[in-house]
Amino acid sequence: MPLASGNNADYLHNEVPGIQLSDEVRERMKGLSGPEGRAMGVQIAKEPLDTAMAYFKGIYLMTPFLSYEMTVQLTKYVWEKAGRHDFHLSPLAK
């Protein structure tokens, strides 16, 4: 799940058992919200995806706060990294 804002990162780190974000990730998200926060969240999410794709044949993405554009961006990224260039959105998703 990509992080949506600095507050989202802090909440997940401090309030959700089992989730621990690094100081570096929380610092990168600090003070960000709106489009800036979502853009940084997508950028950060690409980093573990790069590692995971070397070991797994599938990726499970969760959409935060109905921000489907974040999941679309990450899905396109995964498909491009996997050499798939046939990703198309349905007319309903545009």
Concise summary:
This protein has 94 residues and is an all-alpha fold.
Protein topology:
Elements: H1 6-15, H2 23-29, H3 34-53, H4 68-81
Helix pairs in contact: 1-2, 3-4
Question: In words, what does this structure look like?
Answer:
The protein is built from 4 helices and no strands. The chain is an all-alpha fold and 94 residues long. 17% of the residues are buried. The chain is 54% helix and 0% strand. The model has no long low-confidence stretch (mean pLDDT 91). Helix 1 (6-15) runs antiparallel to helix 2 and helix 3 packs parallel to helix 4 (68-81).
Strand % is under 5%
Low-confidence stretches: none
**Total DSSP helices:** 4
Rg, alpha carbons: 14 Å
Sequence of secondary-structure elements: HHHH
Helices and strands: which structural class?
mainly alpha
Shape: globular
The largest β sheet comes out as: none
Key phrases:
94 residues; mainly alpha; 4 helices; 54% helix; globular
